[in-house]
Amino acid sequence: MATPDFIRTIRASAGHQLLWLPGVSAVVFDDTGRVLLGQRSDNRRWSLISGIPDPGEQPAVCAVREVYEETAVHCEVERVLVVDAGKQVAYDNGDICQFMDITFRCRAVGGEARVNDDESLQVGWFEPDALPKLSDHSLFRIKQALADEPTWFQPTS
């Protein structure tokens, strides 16, 4: 994954210690109800399209940008699906991060799905009942996108 310059600057003084970072994810549907997924180049796993907002960038704007940068698909954000603090992630280089992720339901409005940067090995559209192997967290967010329910967040009690 490409590390944003502002995080490289922080890492220069913070070292590998835990960084608490914003993140966004997009569950993108086409007009036939298929879900857009990317196979990540860093771990070879299929996943939702995601990324880190630039300083001052609105989360929904980041989601649209990340979908285009990674897949060449233009999309519009429809609603917030999930707000969730993820688990800590340790990367091969020793960096540790934890993300506060906002997941959006999006609708494709143009473009043709293709690998559009070096963050993905493959991208493609998948029927919700014929998904490749995904994490439980990704499957949960797709389920939320298919349901007509309020935004999910961890209950306080």
Q: Which whole number gives the mean pLDDT?
A: 95
Estimate the helix proportion, in percent. Answer: 10-25%
Largest sheet: 5 strands, mixed
What structural class do helix, strand and pairing data support? alpha+beta
Number of helices: 3
Overall number of strands: 8
Listing every helix as H and every strand as E from the N terminus to the C terminus, the arrangement reads HEEEEHEEEEH
Large-scale geometry: globular
Low-confidence stretches are none
Radius of gyration: 15 Å
> How far apart are the termini?
36 Å
Percent of residues in β-strands: 35-45%
Describe the structure.
- The strands form 2 sheets. Strands 1, 4, 5, 6 and 7 form a 5-stranded mixed sheet that branches. A 3-stranded antiparallel sheet has the order 3-2-8, with no helix packed on it.
- It contains 3 helices and 8 strands, in the order αββββαββββα.
- β2 (35-40) and β3 (46-47) form a beta hairpin.
- It is an alpha+beta fold and 157 residues long.
- It has helices at residues 5-14, 59-71, 136-146, and strands at residues 19-29, 35-40, 46-47, 49-51, 74-85, 89-90, 96-110, 120-126.
- The protein is globular.
- The model has no long low-confidence stretch (mean pLDDT 95).
- It is 22% helix and 37% strand.
Write the layout of secondary structure elements.
Elements: H1 5-14, E1 19-29, E2 35-40, E3 46-47, E4 49-51, H2 59-71, E5 74-85, E6 89-90, E7 96-110, E8 120-126, H3 136-146
